[in-house]
Amino acid sequence: MTHDTSSASNVHYQLPFKFGLGGVPLGNEFAVVTDKDAYAILEAAWSAGIRYYDVSPWYGLGLAERRFGSFLHNKKRSEYVISSKVGKLLKPSTTARNRELFPFSPSPSDVIFDYTSSGVRRSIEDSLQRLGIDSLDIVFVHDISSDNKLLPTSWQEQFEIATKGAFPEIKGWGIGVNTPEPILRVLREADPDVCLMASQYSLIDHKNALNQLFPAVRRKNTSLVVGSALNAGFISGSPRYNYGKESYKIPAEFLEKRKKLREVAENHGVELRTAALQFSASPDVAAALVVGASSEQQILADYTSMQTKIPAEFWAELKAKQLIEQNAPTPA
């Protein structure tokens, strides 16, 4: 079901692509994206040369996987890499709470959390059905984290279940979470190939990951997929921060920091979005950067940003003004 990258030999799966398209917007997380527009985004990404895709059953409760599948099943499987998630099974139900979780998704499914070995097998099989493909390259054990308020018991209890069930079951694997603590724990207790750091490393907020998480990743000789370089659009001007829905909950210091970052960027003729993407892709432990897109123009702009040269003076001023950590890696 996944590529055989045996952790017993301490040989970790290496992502062959540094930039990927994330599936959150195509699951209608924040707004309605039509099937036509979703296909146009995927077509634009493919035409630009993007060959890494990250999805999950959670994104739109199956909607994102079906959309990626309708596009990718016509492509040669050896030409792209795809990761998905386990831990959340979808069960169609006439009383589904899907509209509470994803108001813009037409999915008729409820979510059942299951981090057991049998649950993982079922989840991967279901994902392969929705995607219309025969294998996944990476599987992330999803959202065993303190910020997941939907878990039936504490994240630590669910982590114990995954330790005996999900982790040994998967070959090319890691966890995908929004907080650093579960990644630190899995690095201590298991041997993941690559973990998805969904929202812990950006221009706005990176000190903890830089000083606590990255050294642990290096010691284990593994790597990270970095998500939310733009804090789910916040750096580009969105009225939300990461996956929060209410703008009034954005910390005041983040709003102030964004304002100061914009000022420095304008002084150097740098687009802040471009700087944010390149910053999050710079650490040596970053195997790949994954971004979401709700339009074809957006994914093409993000991809173009990765090729744009930023003057060294820009990064120097950010450090001089203490807007980024002194030891934060920046693009050469």
How would you describe the overall organization of this protein?
The chain has one domain: NADP-dependent oxidoreductase domain (TIM Barrel), CATH 3.20.20. Helices cover 38% and strands 14% of the residues. It is built from twelve helices and ten strands. Strand 7, helix 7 and strand 8 form a beta-alpha-beta unit. Helix 1 crosses helix 2, helix 1 packs parallel to helix 11 and helix 7 runs parallel beside helix 8. The radius of gyration is 19 Å and the shape is globular. The N terminus is likely disordered.
How does the helix and strand content classify structurally? alpha/beta
The order of strands across the largest sheet is 1-2-3-6-7-8-9-10
- The CATH homologous superfamily: NADP-dependent oxidoreductase domain
- Rg, Å, rounded: 19 Å
Give the helix proportion (percent range).
Answer: 25-40%
Question: What's the mean pLDDT score?
Answer: 93
Largest sheet: 8 strands, parallel, barrel
Q: Give the number of domains.
A: 1
Distance between the termini: 38 Å
β-strand number: 10
Class in CATH?
Answer: Alpha Beta
- Based on Cα principal axes, name the global outline: globular
> Strand-and-helix sequence, N→C?
EHEHEEHEHEHHEHEHEHHEHH
